[in-house]
Amino acid sequence: MNPDTDTIAAVATAPGESAIAIIRVSGPASLPIADRIFSCEGTPASQRASNSFVHGRILSKDGVADEVILLIYRAPHSYTREDSIEIQGHGGSIATKRILRSVLDAGARPAEPGEFTKRAFLSGRIDLLQAEAVLDLIRARSDRAATAALEQLSGRLSDSFGKAYDEIISTAADLEATLDFSEDELPPTLLNGVVRRLQQGEQHLQDLLDTWDEGHLLREGALVVISGKPNVGKSTLLNALLGIDRAIVTPMPGTTRDTIEELLVIDGLSVRLVDTAGLRDTDCEIEGEGIRRTRSALEKADLVLYLIDGSQTLDPVDIEQIKTIPPEKSVILVNKSDLPKKANTPSMTDRSVIFISLRSGDDIPFVKRIISEKISTHCMAQPHAVISERHRTLVLSTLKEVSEASRLLQNDPPETALAASSLRASLEILGEATGRVYHDELLNNIFSRFCIGK
Ligand SMILES: Nc1nc2c(ncn2[C@@H]2O[C@H](COP(=O)(O)OP(=O)(O)O)[C@@H](O)[C@H]2O)c(=O)[nH]1
Ligand SMILES: [Mg+2]
To answer: So what CATH class is 219-376?
Structure first.
């Protein structure tokens, strides 16, 4: 059987007890299968109009499998652009399995992960960027991540990539045309025009690259690390932000040995909040390993909340520590303001220094606002599509080829043939982002991450 023209089936809803479960079927045999296993009053399913639904029963070898609603989609008006049906049965594993079994017995085969979306891509209904957006939307852990995924699904990112692609391809065509001229016949204005347009193309690619920071924050969540010396209130802060007693808090310095990471959503942004072992010299092997982990978390952090105990005299070690963190990525929180003040305020004009007390939870909304403001500086206010790690690698390689072409054309004499070949290479790479150019490995890589039934 041709894997692209056979008929696939899968349960599209999550397993377990639920009000309804949906079994999805797509491919040329969808409607004949419906006629074989579905009984209803009046017109058989295959004779009914597209985008209609009908109540009836799914029959199996052993009798009635379930009472269901059947939805009919005729090609090309379906998710995959193929003939498709969706069977809405009662949720719960037994009824759902019985329906799927009937569909498979009637001639469908079990779908692979993401195969419905893969068919939507192969039929040209969506491009690869939109297919990836489907997965991003399912996996979104915050409002903003979901909004960015929807923007990508609507084709916003495809348009940006398309614009860069069209710009390079038309410039490449102009450049190819100059290959017919001999070197001394070549009008210099022609090449200057090509170089100028390549520079515009580079800018376009750079704009795309600039969305990566935000894309990374939205997809993975911002890494916010709580750091500082032992006993300053780091674990108290983690617990207060989470609203649960996640980390052990004691008056004894050195309580937290390992890094603790928890997910939290602040202002629609997902945050990976990390509590760390307090920084100090120690002979204890376990605490030492904890401190090594703290340093590694600090290196990767998108934001560091550096805590100081305001009831103690200021330790110059704190100032040294803070200086190792880039100013835009740090907030200094002087804690325990409810106690008599001993610490003179760290005078670091390039950093935000904020006085708080974690004794009551009153300052927590304020700390949340600070976190959200600091992270949001990486995020634009308007919803827009953002690139992922896969796209970033491709855009970087494309940019390298385009810059190389531009450099070759500015050589004396201009190396037009080599430049043209760089541009051809750049188009090939850029095409992999949208799926204009694809190979099985690339598709397997992307669609294997989907769930079955999507
Ligand atoms: N008075 C006062 N005590 C605090 C405050 N924040 C934390 N503590 C106390 O400081 C001690 C150390 O807190 P902990 O969160 O374990 O500090 P860590 O070692 O930095 O994780 C505990 O006894 C906390 O109850 C605060 O704002 N005011
Ligand atoms: Mg602690």
So the answer is: alpha beta
